[in-house]
Amino acid sequence: MNRLVTIALLASLISCTHNQQTKKLPVPKSEVKRKLLGINQKLVDKDKEEILAYISRQKLTMVQSQSGLFYYIFGKAKGPKPKAGNVVVYHYRISLLDGTECYKSEPNKPESFVVGHGGVETGLEEAIKLMHKGQNAILILPPHLAHGLIGDLDRIPPRSSIIYEVSLIDVLK
């Protein structure tokens, strides 16, 4: 009888020990969220550091918005600022911080979009709303205001800050 009790106790202990080794304790969601927020902040800080180094090398004077957009708007205003629902007509050139040109509008063939309807980079839309018709701007969009983690899957690599040179030609109601 004692042997049976001993064997049962040993089997129970081995079983408990085995379960403790193979089961992982669940990680609380708050811990996962805290770690992801920390990683995100490190990426944002790294992007900002690269952008500030570019601004310093180019000797630019730029303003930073709350979202992280860097901009320099210049030229004489010839009309109103765009509002939601307006169609903006503009020429542009997009390049990377290393100077690689990615895209540009064709001469005599400007681009357009409806303000507030998406379809363009968040940073471009934010900046267009700061400009007046007739003005020009140099914008630096960090990845979170441009094409994010994956780039545009064409000419803009993943996690790239981009430089927009924009001329706001017209604001249509």
Automatic annotation (TrEMBL):
Keywords, alphabetical: Isomerase, Rotamase
SUPFAM superfamilies the record matches: FKBP-like (SSF54534)
Family: Belongs to the FKBP-type PPIase family.
Range of residues in the leader sequence: none
Pfam hit, one: FKBP_C
Catalytic activity, as annotated: [protein]-peptidylproline (omega=180) = [protein]-peptidylproline (omega=0)
Recorded coiled-coil stretches: none
GO molecular function, one term: peptidyl-prolyl cis-trans isomerase activity
First-tier enzyme category under EC: isomerase
Lineage: Bacteria, Pseudomonadati, Bacteroidota, Bacteroidia, Bacteroidales
UniProt domain PPIase FKBP-type: residue ranges: 85-172
Protein name: Peptidyl-prolyl cis-trans isomerase
InterPro entries according to UniProt: PPIase_dom_sf, PPIase_FKBP_dom
EC numbers on record: 5.2.1.8
